Amino acid sequence: MENVATDENWKNCFSQLAPGLLLFARQWARSTADAEDIVQEAFVRFWRKQHDIANRGLLYATVRSIALDFLRRDSRRARRESTAASETEQTVQPMFAIEDESQRALVAALDLLPNEQREVLVMKIWNELTFAEIASALEISQNTAASRYRYALAALKKNLPAV
Amino acid sequence: MNDFSELESQLGKLRPVQPSADLMTRVERALAEARHSESLHRGETSTATAGVLPRERRFRFNWLSLGLGLAAAAALVLFTWIQLERPAKKMPALSSITPAPQFSSPASTAQFIPAGLTQVVYHTRDEGVHFPSNSEQPMRRVRSHTRETLQWRNPTTGASLRISYPSEEVSLVAVTGQ
C-alpha cells in the first residue's frame, strides 16, 4: 500500500544507493548510459513492489537480472562494443573517479578479476552489503560469497605488489 | 585475522562515478507513469476522488451472467424432465388406438372417464399350417404378443389412471388355394 511518505522515501533511498547500483550495473554494461537505464528499470520495478529497501538483496538481484536481460537483448551490440572496447581501451567509460596513479593501477587490477569475484567485491565494498545479502542476490551460499570475496582480494594483492 | 584491511581501505577510497543529474528525474517520471498505468489498470481515475482517497473498489453484480446461468439451468432441468417423461421402450408397432368406450362408471369411479385404449403388437410369429379337427381346410396359425394399455382420466382434477398388461393372441387364418 502506498502512503504519503512514499515519494520522499524513494528519493532518499535512491540518492543513497544510486552510485553503488550504477557501479554494480556497470559489470554488464559498457557505458554509463546503459547502466543508468538498467538501474532505472530495476529500481522502478523494485520500488513498485517493495516500497522500502529492507530487502536490499532483492534490489541487487533485480538489477542483475535486468542487466543480464539487457545483455541478451543487445548481444550483437554488446559484442560490437566489446570488440571496439578491446581495440580502443580509451572508449570504455570509467567506473571510478580516479585521483592518482595508485588508484589507476587498482582499477586496472579490478578489471582483471573474474566477473564472479568482481561482482561480490563491488557489492561488498561500494554497496556495503552483508555476505547474507550478497548470497541472496546471487543465489549462492554465504560461504561461497565470502570465498569469492577473499579470492578477489588475494588476486588484487597479487597483482599490486606495492600494496 | 584480516590481512587485506589495507587493501580494503584503498578500495574504499575509490569513488564510483556519480549518476547523471537527470537519472533521478527519469526514475521519478517512470514511477509516476507506473502508478498511473496501475490506476488505469484498476479502472481508477485521479479525478474521481479528487486525489484525496483511493476510490473504493465496489463489488459489481453481473446480472447478465446470472441471467444466462439461470436460463441454462432451467433449460437443463426442462430437458431432463422431458427425457424422464418419455417412455424408454421403443414401440415396434402400433396396431390400433381405439376411442374410449363411453360408458358410465359406478359411483366409486364416476369421476374417471375412459381416455383411451392402446394395443401394441411387438411380436408376431407364423407357426405354419395346421389342420384343426373341426375344420375341413388347413389353417395358418399366427401367434401375436401384444401389450394393451387402458387409460382413464379425471377431467376435474386432471388425474389419470393407466393399466397396462401383456397379452397373447392366437389367430387361425384360412389358407386359400389358387
Report on the structure:
The complex is a heterodimer of chains A (about 160) and B (about 180). Chain A has helices at about 5-25, 30-50, 55-75, 75-85, 100-110, 115-125, 130-140, 140-160; one strand at about 95. Chain A is mostly helical and about 160 residues long. Chain A folds into two domains: about 1-95, no CATH class; about 100-165, Orthogonal Bundle (Arc Repressor Mutant, subunit A). Residues about 1-5 of chain A have low confidence and may be disordered. Chain B has two domains: about 5-55; about 95-175, no CATH class. Helices cover about 30% and strands about 30% of the residues of chain B. Chain B has three helices and five strands, in the order H-E-H-H-E-E-E-E. Chain B has a four-stranded antiparallel sheet, with no helix packed on it. In chain B, strand 3 (about 115-130) and strand 4 (about 140-155) form a beta hairpin. The termini of chain B are far apart. Strand 1 of chain A pairs antiparallel with strand 1 of chain B.
